[in-house]
Amino acid sequence: MTDTRERRLVDAFLAATGMVVGDYDVVEMLQTLVDDVAGIFAVDAVGILLADPQRRLEVAASTSEASAFLGLLQLEAGEGPCIESYETGRTVSVADRQEMRRRWTHFAEESERAGFASVHSIPLRSHTAVLGSMNLFRRAPGRLDDQDATAARALTDVASISILQQRSADQAARTRDQLQRALDSRIVIEQAKGFLAHTHQVDPDQAFTMLRGHARSAGRPLREVALAVVERRLAIPGPAPADAGR
After folding, report:
1. Tens-digit pLDDT profile for residues 36-83
2. Residue 223's domain spans which residues?
3. CATH number at residue 138
4. What is the rounded distance in angstroms from the CA atom of residue 119 to the CA atom of residue 149?
5. Dihedrals φ, ψ of 97, to 5°?
6. 168, part of any domain
7. Is the same domain home to 141 and 213?
8. 178-199: pLDDT as tens digits
9. Residue 238: which residues within 8 A CB-CB, separation 6 or more?
């Protein structure tokens, strides 16, 4: 690599690792990645397919309409180098149109129509899962040289780490949100119990029974009923006197 390309590659790694340790948007990260790869390596278009939680692949980023189209084409056909790379977890490198035609006829036809003669597909993977694939299209035949292929693979590894970290962070955030909602609900319920206990001169257990009984009979969430009581939007009647009806 030339000094300029080396600097651009270092900058790409710095950008990717910066996203690992900070807040970022996954789509923006992937778009930055494909733009960097297209600018650094001897390729004409780059696209990324990413699997959703149900393992359905989608086009997540691309440098051109052509690369996005070829990604969608493979998804519709259920075959192609990008699909194979994702399904096997291995790099798939196709050096020319003849090899492409032999392996995926429809993809080869559309790829040739779009002006591409070779493709290099790299899985985005961790130790335990394949997340998608990054796909490098070239108008000229031939494989990526070993140095470029290694560097491109290293960038996809960083991207995979970033995506996994984001997914873990999202899960952790959801757990924190659920815990916080539960704690907030508990506070509101305790406030409602205290209000009912004071208003009707009952103990907290009786107040909670009144609160929960009203929520069940009304078919409303307990927190919602408690909040309405606290905000004075709902008046729950007190228990009937012990001698009522005699």
Report:
1. 889 888 899 999 998 877 888 888 888 888 888 888 888 888 889 999
2. 176-230
3. 3.30.450.40
4. 12
5. -70, -30
6. yes
7. no
8. 557 756 777 888 899 999 999 9
9. 196, 199, 200, 201, 202, 210
